[in-house]
Design brief:
heterodimer, A: mainly alpha, 20 helices, 2 strands, B: mainly alpha, Four Helix Bundle (Hemerythrin (Met), subunit A), 2 domains, 13 helices, globular
Chain lengths: 494, 320
Amino acid sequence: MLLSNLPALQVVIPLVSAPVCLLLRNPRHAWACALIISWLVLAMALLLLQQVYTLGTISYAIGAWATPWGIEYRIDMAGALMILIIATVGAVTMPYAWRNIQHELHRKHTGVYYTCYLLCLTGLLGIVVTGDAFNLFVFLEISSLSSYVLISLGPSRRALTAAYQYLVMGTIGATFILIGIGLLYMMTGTLNMQDISQRLPEVADTRTIRVAFAFVTVGVSIKLALFPLHIWLPNAYTYAPSVVSAFMAATATKVGVYVLLRFFFTLFGLQFSFNAMHVGEILMLLAVAAILIASLVAIFQDNVKRMLAYSSVAQIGYIILGISLATTAGVSAGMLHLFNHAMIKGALFMAMGCIFLRLGSVEIHNMHGLARQMPWTMAAFVAGGLSLIGVPLTAGFISKWYLVNAALTDGYWPLAVLILVSSLLALIYIWRVVEAAYFHLPGADMHKVREAPASMLIPTWLLIGVNLYVGLDAGLITNIAQQGAASLLGQALQ
Amino acid sequence: MEHLIDIVLLGLLMITGFAIVRMKSLLAVAMLTSIYSLLSASLFVVLDAVDVALTEAAIGAGISTILMLATVALTRDEEKAPRHTPLLPLAVVTVTGAALIYGTLDMPHYGDPAAPVHQHAASAYLHDTPGEIGVPNVVTSVLASYRGYDTLGEVTVIFTAGAGVLALLGYRTRRRNIQGPGIRKLVVLRVIAKLFFPLILLFALYVLFHGDYGPGGGFQAGVIFATGFILYALAFGLGNAQRVIHHPLLRIMAAVGVLIYAAVGIEGILLGGKFLEYGVLADDPVTGQHLGIMLIELGVGITVAAVMLIIYYGFVSRQD
C-alpha cells in the first residue's frame, strides 16, 4: 500500500515534517527530525529509482482524479535521477549541518533553519516529481521562498543583501514562468504536461505560444543562473551558510536545468523548441560564454566560496552545452554532468565549511600552510578539485568525455577545444588554493588551527567517495543518464 | 455597458500604476497599491471571478496594505534616490511589455466561448462537479478537490513565508503596549473597532464554512480573521491583542493548519485510496468529498490566519 503511494510520499513526508520541525522547540530535536527525514527521503528515492528502472515511467493520480482533470505525478528516468541527486545531497549534508549551523547561525535561528531546509527539500522534490505545469510553479515557489530565507541566515550581514538580490531576480524569474504557463493554459485549456504536449502542435504556430516559450525560457534561465542571468548567484553562494551553499549549489540550479529540460522536450517538444524557435543556437552561444567568462572570473577571486560560485556558473555552461546539441548523446552527457557536478560542488563547498569552522575565513591569503593543519579537509578539496578539472579516474572526467564525444559526433570540434581550454582554467583556480595551502609558509596563528570534526569530514568524504567511484565505474550512472535523456527525447533506448 | 466598465476600471488601474511609479512618498505608494488591488478586485467581479475578487480585496487591498504600512513605519517614508541610471531597467521593461503585447495578437477573443480554456478541462469541471463532488461552487471543487494538491502547495507557500518571517524578524517580547503604525488613540476608531471586531470574526467563519456554496473559503476566511485581530491591535495596542492570541500559539497554529491538510491527504492513503482522495473518507464518496473539503478549508484558514498575524506581530513588535 505504501509502496504504490511512493511518488506522493516522496514529497509529502518532508512536507509534513517541516511544520512538525517548527513545533519542536529544542534545536537538537529539530535537527534530529530533519536528519531522519533526509535519510528516509534517500531511501524512498532509491526505491523509486528501482521501480522506474524495472517498471518504466510511473504515473500517480493525486486524489484519484483521472488526468488531465486532476494533478498527475509522473516520474521517468530523468526525474528519478534528479530525485536521487537531491535526496543524496540532502542526506549527506544533514549530519554535516549540525556543527556548521551551530557555528555560523545565531542560536535563535537554528530551530527555524531546519524547518526552512525541509521546505526547500519539499519544493525541489515536488518540482521534479510533478507532471503538471502549474503544480510545478507552486513547488517552485516553496523552494524559492525557503532558499531566500536559508541564504539570508548567513553569518555576515551581507547575506541579507545577497538574499534580497536573489529574491528580486528569482521573483522576476518565477513571474515569467507563471506568465508562460498562463499563456500555455490559455491556448491549450489544460495544465497537465502530457496533455499540453498533445494539444500544443495544433496551436504551436501562433504568436501567443512563441511568447509563452520565450517567457518560460528566460524565467527558467534566471533560476538556473544561465550566463548572463547569473548575477544573483555569486553573492548568494558566498554569503550563505556553508551547508546551504553546498546544498543549493548541488541541487537548486540543477533542478532549474531539469525544469528547462521538461519544458523544452516534454511540453514544447524537440521539434518546436529547437527547429522552430532555434533555441539550441542561442543556448550554445550562452553556454560557451558562461564556460569561458565565468572560469576566467573565477581565477581572480580571493574568496574561495565566490570562486566556486563562479565555477558553478561555468559548470552550468557545460550542462547547457550538452542540452543545446539536442541529441540523445548531448542531453545524456548534460545529465551525467548534472549528477557529477552536484557531487563535486557539494563536496567542495563542504570542504570550505570545514575550513571556515576552524579558520574563520575562506580567503586564499589566510590559507597559507593550511594543509599541514587540516590534511583531511585539504585532501578532500584536492580530490574534488581534480574531479572539477576532469582528471581521469574522477567523475568529472567521465562527463567531460561524454560531452566531448557528443560534440564531435555532431561535428562541433571547436567545442571540444573549448572544453579542454576551460579545464585548464579550472586547473589554474584550483591550483591557487592548493599552492597557498600546501606550498606557502604558515602564518603566525596557523598552529592553533585544528582538523575539522568527524561529523563534517565524513559527509564531505562520502561525496568525494561518490566522485571517485563514478570515476572508476561509471556504468550504472551513465546508463541512468542515457535512459533519462531517451525518455526526455521520447525515444526508446536501443 | 460591461465593456464601458472594463475600460474605466482598466484606465483607472493604469493611472494608479503610473502614480505608484512616480510617487516618492512610500506612505502614499502603500495607499495607492491598496487602491490598485481594490480596482483589480472590481475587475474580477466584472469577470464573474468572485472568489478571486474576494481574495484580492481581502489580501491585496486589506492586509498587504497594513503590512506595507507597518514596514514603512519601521524604515522611513521617503524613497531613496536610485543610484543607477534607469536605462537598462527601462529597456528590459519595454522589451517585456512589447513581447506581452505581441503575444496577445493570436489570443482567443475576450469571452469567446470557443476558446480552449472553456472547452477542455473547465467544461469537464462544470459538468462533473454536481455528480462527483456535489458542491454548488465549482471554484471550490476545483481548488479543494480536483486540484487540491496545488492548494496544499499554496498553504505550504504561506507557511514558508511565516517561517521566513519568524527566522528573519522573530518576535520581540515587549513590556510596553505598542500601538500600531500611524494610528494614535482615536476614540471613534476604538469604538468602531470594538463594534466591528466580533462581526469580522463571525464573517470570517461564515466565509470559511460557506465556501462550498458561495464565494470564499479558507484563504479568504483566514485573512479576514487576521484583519479582525489587526484592527483590534491597531486600536488597543499589540499588548492587548497578545492577551487573546499570543505569539507561541501562532507558531503552533501555523504548523497545525498545514498538518490538518496533509493529514486528510494521508488518511486517504491509510484508508486504501490515493493521497488526497476524499471519496474514501466516508461510506458515500460525495459525503467523503464534503468532509474532506471542509477539513482542508479549516486547515487552510488556520494557517493563513496564523501566518498573517505572525508577520504583523513580527513587524509591529520591532517598533520603538
